[in-house]
Specification:
Layout: H1 3-14, H2 17-22, H3 24-40, E1 46-50, H4 56-63, E2 67-72, H5 75-84, E3 89-92, E4 106-111, H6 114-117, H7 121-134, E5 135-145, H8 146-156, H9 160-163, E6 182-183, H10 185-194, E7 198-204, H11 213-217, H12 221-234, H13 238-241, E8 246-252
Parallel strand pairs: 1-2, 1-4, 2-3, 4-5, 5-6
Antiparallel strand pairs: 5-8, 7-8
Length: 253
């Protein structure tokens, strides 16, 4: 097992992704992403979820009757996937090498994790090109945003002095040893262009929800419904995208 895979495995052995998406602040991301996914799905579509994690999206779409293949890189997540659904198709692979799939194998590619776990630009571009190669129609990709990470972890959590050496003069995070790569909009656009992909739509999957975890988790049903409606009405606004924790691109060839 390579060093990076070992680090990812150790992280996901401790981090509970299911709990994150099941709590109310995580439900904002899940419900928003599913809303947009459904806008582009057609009956009978074949879907591949690359970096499927414990299967929150792959299993939900399979339960809706779609033909879903889950691609996952780390064993703990694969184990959780199999424990939930022994019949789902699972492939253990990295997003940068999907050679087991032929061109145009899937109608829709969902890639909600790999681009922020690949630090090198060359690797992120490879992942995009592989996604492009195996899809007939649509790709969904997610990036973690730089400004969110600086606000949340450097300042809100009081860690500025501990991590200031990992920030350049423009407060761009530069930490090759980290498990997460934080993007800015111009970097995302550059990669999409290099991969020859067309941006159809861009939205903040969770907006300010990560900043407000405790507040959102304590909301009553009426208030949470209003907050979710506010988020859905504003999640494509350009002035808010960069400060979201996650931004999703909907791409085509």
């Amino acid at each position: 097992m390579d060093e990076f895979k070992e680090k990812l495995t150790a992280f996901y052995n401790k981090f509970n992704e299911n709990k994150r998406l099941d709590r109310r602040h995580g439900q904002v991301e899940f419900l928003t992403s599913m809303k947009y996914i459904h806008e582009y799905l057609k009956a009978g579509d074949k879907i591949v979820d690359i970096g499927a994690g414990p299967g929150r999206y792959a299993l939900a779409l399979k339960d809706e009757g779609y033909d879903v293949t889950a691609v996952e890189y780390v064993r703990p997540n694969i184990g959780m996937l199999r424990a939930k659904d022994k019949e789902i198709k699972i492939v253990e692979a990295s997003a940068v090498d999907l050679s087991m799939f032929e061109d145009d194998s899937f109608d829709v590619v969902i890639m909600f994790g790999p681009l922020y776990h690949l630090y090198e630009k060359e690797d992120r571009l490879k992942a995009l090109k592989e996604a492009k190669r195996i899809t007939k129609r649509i790709i969904f990709t997610t990036c973690i945003m730089n400004e969110y990470a600086v606000i949340e972890y450097a300042f809100k959590d009081g860690n500025y002095k501990q991590i200031k050496d990992k920030l350049d003069e423009n407060f761009k995070i530069d930490d090759p040893e980290a498990l997460f790569f934080q993007s800015r909009i111009e970097e995302i656009d550059e990669l999409n262009n290099m991969a020859g992909l067309k941006l159809l739509k861009r939205f903040a999957s969770d907006g300010p929800s990560d900043y407000m975890r405790d507040t959102i988790n304590k909301m009553d049903d009426e208030t949470f419904e209003a907050y979710l409606n506010f988020h859905l009405k504003t999640c494509e606004r350009k002035e808010l995208l960069g400060a979201s924790s996650h931004v999703v691109d909907i791409l085509s060839k």
